[in-house]
Amino acid sequence: MAGTLGIFGICLLCAGVHMTSGMTVNIPDKVYKIGRGDNVVIPCTFTPSTSLSSISWTADPDIKDDPEINVVGYFTIGSKTKVYNKYKGRANMEVDLLKGTANLQLQSVTSADTRDYECKVQDPDDEEGRLSDKASLVVLVAPSQPICNVVGKAEYFQNIELTCRSEEGTPTPTYKWQSYNVNNVPRPLPLKASEQNGALSLVNISMDTSGYYICTSTNEIRSAKCNVTLRVDPPSLNMASTAGIIGGVVGVAVFVGIIICCCCYCRRRREKAEEYAMGTPEGGEFTDKDPEEREDDRDEHVNYEEERRVKSADRLDPPDDRSERSYDRRSDYDDRRDHYTDRRDDRSDRRERYDRDDRRDDGRERYDDRRDRYDDRRDHYDDRRDRHDDRRDRYDSDRYDSRDRPPSVPPNKPKEPRN
Ligand SMILES: *[C@@H]1O[C@H](CO)[C@@H](O)[C@H](O)[C@H]1NC(C)=O
Ligand SMILES: *[C@@H]1O[C@H](CO)[C@@H](O)[C@H](O)[C@H]1NC(C)=O
Asked: Is ligand 2 within 6 A of the CB of residue 227?
């Protein structure tokens, strides 16, 4: 064991002696990743040598075959460091000749700094060494807040797509959807759902599909989310048909209204015509007596009516005319009294007839009765006259009333004489 170690050590020593004869430049990693805006250091080591003249960092051009871009150089003469224009203010090289390090510093990197960098040592005395090494710098960009959208109609039986996309992200983010029910409890995605490039396809959706859908956009350095609230509604009528239905309903209502108005108008006109045609007021319809009595009563009605009017006219006349007028009236009245007396005679005759029938007492009572009834009827008649006038005034509003009233029969119509 010890012997083996000893041989290994000797070999190492021999190798070291051999290496001093040739320069070695080394960048430890092939790729360096850094977040955008951060500062990065790309290390470079070399075999210390008193004979090296300069160390430089160069970058690959955007376009292949273009000349390489100078970043920063170190010159042993005067220990001078030169930062080239393109990197002024944000690039530097840390050189330690004794340790053999020449690290590149870049500040506030951007996506444009993503490229290959080369560390080169120039040593005029070294003819066989490997004098440079290369590495890649990748500037990473966190995914931006993804934008989520619902593509399609969120109604029963529809197929829709939930989309999710981050505007930036280096490397390109990957997307993943998760579902929560309306009570915010996680649940598996629907069975027929499929996910591709951030688009979640949902087929034949229903109320159960409603809930929250969260998309997570992730790349190497960070992740970001968006949140879609999906509410699936029953199929709705589209705007055009809704407007059509409303318009139709309004049209029908207007039409019906016009018809009703026409009917009312026609009916009113017809009723008017009918009432005028019927014409005669219900004044003298005492048809429930034997003809003889009716004649008498009617005459007496008229007489009493006239008398009443005369009296009321007297009351209303101014005092001057009054005496003369009242004289006329009085003589008029006397005539009437005469007339009335004649009638009384008539009645007396009739009474005598009753007497002759040996029913004198009976007849007298009946006569008195009839007188009373006659007075009553006269009042009733006046009443009806007034009512009739009234009705004519209020013709329109009262017409239903007058139509519906039962045929006017005096409430106290006299009974047939008990002959
Ligand atoms: C969609 O789902 C309903 C029940 O929710 C079902 O009756 C219907 O057949 C389905 N349609 C299709 C095309 O799968
Ligand atoms: C999604 O949004 C809803 C309502 O805005 C909220 O209640 C829910 O917690 C959110 N979910 C997540 C994971 O942010």
From this structure: yes
